[in-house]
Amino acid sequence: MIRQFRGFDQIARWVGCCVLAFAWLVLGGSALGAGTGLEEARRLFQTGDYAKCVTMAERGLSERQNSEAWRLLLTRGLLTTGRYREALTAMTNALAKESRSIQLRWLAREVFEQNGQPEAAKRMPEEINKLVVARPNGYREPLDLIAFGQAALSAGVDPKRVLDRAFEMAKKAAPTLSEVYLASGTLALEKHDYALAAKTFQEGLKQQPDDPDLHCGLATAYEPGNQELMIASIEAALEQNSNHVGSLLLLAGHCIDAEDYAKAGEFLDRVSSVNPFHPDAWAYRAALAYLQNQSQAGDAARTNALRFAPANPRVDHLIGLKLSQNYRFTEGADHQREALRLDETYLPAQAQLAQDLLRLGEEREGWELAEEVHRMDGYDVAAFNLITLRGTMAKFSTLTNEAFILRMGAREAAIYGPRVLELLGTVRSNLCAKYGFEVRRPCIVEMFPDQKDFAVRTFGMPDNPGFLGVCFGNVVTANSPASHPGRPVNWHAVIWHEFCHVVTLQMTRNRMPRWLSEGISVYEELEANSAWGQHMNPRYREMILEGKLTPVSKLSGAFLSPKSDLHLQFAYYESALAVEFLVERFGFDRLKGILRDLGDGMPINKAIEKNTAPLAVIEKDFDAFARGLAGRMAPGLNWDKPPQEVLSPSTDDPTSVTWTISHPTNFWVMTQKARGFVEAKQWREARPLLERLVELYPGATGPDSAYRTLAAAHRALGDTNAEWQVLSRFATLDKEAPDACLRLMELAAPVGDWAVVARNVNRYLAVNPLVAPPYRFLAQAAEAEGHLPAAIGASEVLLRLDPPNPAEVHFTLARLLHKVGDEGARRHVLEALEEVPRNRAALRLLLEISGGVPSGKNSPAASAADAKP
């Protein structure tokens, strides 16, 4: 087909010489400059008054028998309102009357598809090609050029050539023409190039700000990455046309993902009021039913979707896509296979099936499909990203045992891969026993040192920076510590969180609402380690007491389009709090009962009511539970929000002074005052204020904690014991305080408190295992405690991290290896001597290893004094 589309090069050569002619045509009265009757009918179509538009088109056509524009408008009106058989009749008549129209033929393709005539639809691009080859000068209008470019795309012509030689030339000739921006933007959407799509639709809206199709296109471009902007664009489209089907379908899909099924149904009802037979709407109704485990209703909706076109692959593709977007990957993959049974060349289904299979861990077939999609469509951004990622992952190291397949960057795997496997084994044994569920298949865990690679593996695109890890059921993807330098993240907590998803998703067969899935995982973080998970803080306290809790029945929606990062984190916190409430009120066995019932196909609200209480009671009591926790947080502090002038560091306004005096324990004022002392390095003035904050708010972590600055004050004032005490408490509370852990190592090592050293090494490595200092302390502690294998392992890792004094590390390793009789000692002592040839201790050790000097109290193997080169 590509080789046969000869007209493209022919018309492209002609177009290069005719931009001025196009402009003349646009200004001089071509089909773009139709009469007022046609313009009024087009306005009716654009504003959603489709019935009147069809009536006007029929009347206009009867008065102007040869009007191509009227025939196009009539057919679009009939298609939009679901009058597919009438649209077929109208198009058949139009093609008989307008035998040379390529615009009609391009629209005829959709008419034939909607009427179940795929072969007739496939003939239209070739007929367009033949007409253009025969009479290239006969198709000089921008609308013809757009239709021809779309036909060329469907025939497999390189998209860039079409953009450059057809759509761009049409835009130069008619820069205010909506159709050219719609065609270019839709092409970018089809290729998953969302940034280009958004740019194109924005350019179009500058020319035609009232066009609902352009607003809807922009909303679609925003959908994968910015839900807030998507909603704003949909609202703009519906303001122009309240019956705009594309926008209503986007909203329905958005509500399905938010698990607001009732609202999704309302939007689909609005679509049906315009077009009762719209296949996409019925596909969404089918997905809605399947997500609620109503298989008969789903099958009936799917049958309705295929009523006019039984071989339409898009129906099963949309059903499967929506199921997969809600973590029902197995069912989603089944629908993609059905779509491909109907049309084995349907690329969207191939691409989605590739993603589904990779998320299910069926990697061989998944990668093969991804390769095939990329071979068939080299411009598809998602396919290109996947294939590029496959090349990157081919260089990963794989660590395995009977329960896990762990893939990591080779360098990271060598440094802390065994620690990851050990942690995975611990969490697996703990959670499987706790939930009474056995994970039977080996779980695949992939850790990515590059955040963009993680995003491509997880979402298909490199632009989802807010996620630390994702679980698909038996496959876990996560950002490694290397992917967020300068931002401490406890990867132990992330691994625990994600494997909890493995247990609960498999236990429920992926049939659980997002709030419950996330809530249980955060709850189990806290159960495993009180420093992990989410905790009440001043911002959460304020949101709860201001009535900003989301009802449990709508809590999943809080994850979909949060107003800010704070609101997203609050959704995680509230979900975990809801789980804590259910366990505390009804017992852990009831929570497991909810999960079992979900796995059996019971809707979430019924599962909750069966195992606990009516949902209305749950929501009311949970609100009281959360308010009680918020009200009891640091009761000795005053939490009134002070006027802004009170927090100004230079204010001496009498009212501000009075307010401060009358609120001596106000958290915000005390924090601001302490911050001012610290910034001025007035440590003596800061210390009592910080001590009071810690006393009144002992559980503070993160940016709200006074522990870190109080420790700094003690250090500045030379009070090492007080510093030790404060840091010890802080390191216990905060899961991401490597600076505190390192300082505790520095304080504990000189006095030989190796238990404290080891404890804080492990805390530090749970945040960042890719730096040298904790391994140096670990080697010291292990050797001092007589754990020579651990000391050797820590020293070997230390060498991989490019320590500032490699000779010292080589010498230490040589000593340790010689103690255990390992022949590798010779190599390391030689390495040390290569760096520092006159190192006496290393020379004596070499002689000892070679048998020239007996070991004893003066030997380097026994002398700590000679340990430093």
Explain the overall architecture.
Strand 1 (397-400) and strand 2 (404-408) form a beta hairpin. Helix 3 (36-46) runs antiparallel to helix 4. The model is unreliable at 14-34 and 860-869 (pLDDT under 50). Among the domains are: 397-631, Neutral Protease Domain 2 (Neutral Protease, domain 2, Orthogonal Bundle); 805-869, no CATH class. The protein contains 44 helices and 5 strands. The longest helix has 26 residues, at 410-435. It has a 5-stranded mixed beta sheet with strand order 1-2-3-5-4. It is mainly α. The N and C termini lie far apart (74 Å).
Key terms:
869 residues; globular; single chain; Neutral Protease, domain 2; 44 helices; mainly alpha
Quaternary class: single chain
**CATH homologous superfamily label of the domain at 397-631:** Neutral Protease Domain 2
Mean pLDDT: 91
Number of strands: 5
Largest sheet descriptor: 5 strands, mixed
Low-confidence stretches: 14-34, 860-869
Helix percent reads: 55-70%
Query: Looking at CATH, which topology of the domain at 397-631 would you report?
Result: Neutral Protease, domain 2
